């Protein structure tokens, strides 16, 4: 370090002040070869026990400087070293601390917002719980018991509607589809009221709403009877053929879904017909298995009310029924025997096979089944004249063949050959010896488009519309006494009223 350097002068001044020198220091310039530098003795060294001597003043011996060393080299140059305390500011550590504090602050804010949200939710749930508590207290204090309502009053209302229906039927000339449907609904309502006496109060409220809806329908029906609509001709007497054939079909009445459920879309249903007891036949439901082929289980009900309520059913099992061409006549069920052209007669009382018979020449196993309906090559039917079978043969090249059967022996009594190709029809039934064939127009409409009269041997075209609930009519069974069609419509049980021509006339 060169003598007279400003930094050295300032440093020495600082050290001198730190040593307690209270006097003014006079620094005199000297040449490099002088024996002393700024009053230091040339023989002395910094940091030695000898106190340095300043020009014009001497430092007290007790206040020697520390934390430095110094010496003069052989050329007379002063060499000194000063140890200063570590006062470097830790900026990097402060930066890391600030970053950590920022992260912690963000986490704290997030958790705080969650806490605020939970507090709000708790407040909402407290209000809901309070409202629920109040509602429960009201219910507990409510002294009204709907199960103790006067059901006789409800029954009286239903009876009044029944009387009104009777008067409406008497005032109409002929039959009315609306009135008949209302009569069925009221009868079902009576059964429901009786069942409700053992049920809870909510069902009572529901039945009251149904009663109000029925009352409204009755009022509308009564108001419409005087509007000058043309009178419908009276139907022929049950079981009689004193008419000119089918001219129209009512809209469908949905009875219910079959007892096996939605998956059982294929099958048949109807009502047993016996000329000796025409109005007392059993109701039967025969869904096929989900393969649309095997008839394994069927149920019998004494009344329609039992069928509606799934009550008092007799369920039987067989292992040989095929397809949905089933018919019931005189307490016997007639089916196509599985994988054959045979017909089986099953006694419904014992569920045993009474007779089996081969149908000569009949095609089977989907050779000439109906359109969109499989395994119904052999379709059995019942009308006022007895038991029939509708089928095709190879000789008829798939055209419909109609045979009248002896219901006891299953012998073929007579056969008629038509010009109608069976697979182009969707189904068929027989009324008073006349075959009626249907075809599909769309997913909601069928059409009776063809007839063959076995009484005259004549055939022709028709255009009678049939409305349906589902796409495919799996089977159609006619009941002579009810004069209804019983239709199995993709698992749903429907029935239709037939409307006949008033006077017999020659078929065209």
Automatic annotation (TrEMBL):
Q: Name one GO molecular function term.
A: cadherin binding
Q: Which PROSITE patterns match?
A: OLF
| Claim: Signal is one of the keywords in the record | yes
Cited Pfam families: OLF
Location of the region described as Disordered in the Swiss-Prot/TrEMBL record = 224-244
Provide the protein's localization.
Secreted
Which residues are in the Olfactomedin-like domain? 240-502
The alphabetical list of record keywords is: Coiled coil, Secreted, Signal
Hydrolase as a keyword?
A: no
Top-level lineage group:
Eukaryota
- Primary location class: secreted
Which residues, by range, are in coiled-coil regions?
Answer: 122-224
Check the UniProt entry and state the signal peptide residues, or none.
1-20
Extract one GO cellular component term from the record. Answer: intercellular bridge
Q: Which InterPro entries match?
A: Olfac-like_dom, Olfactomedin-like_domain
Q: Name one GO biological process term.
A: signal transduction
Note the PANTHER family from the entry.
OLFACTOMEDIN-4, OLFACTOMEDIN-RELATED
Q: What is this protein called?
A: Olfactomedin 4
Q: Which organism is it from?
A: Prolemur simus (Greater bamboo lemur)
* Gene this chain is encoded by: OLFM4
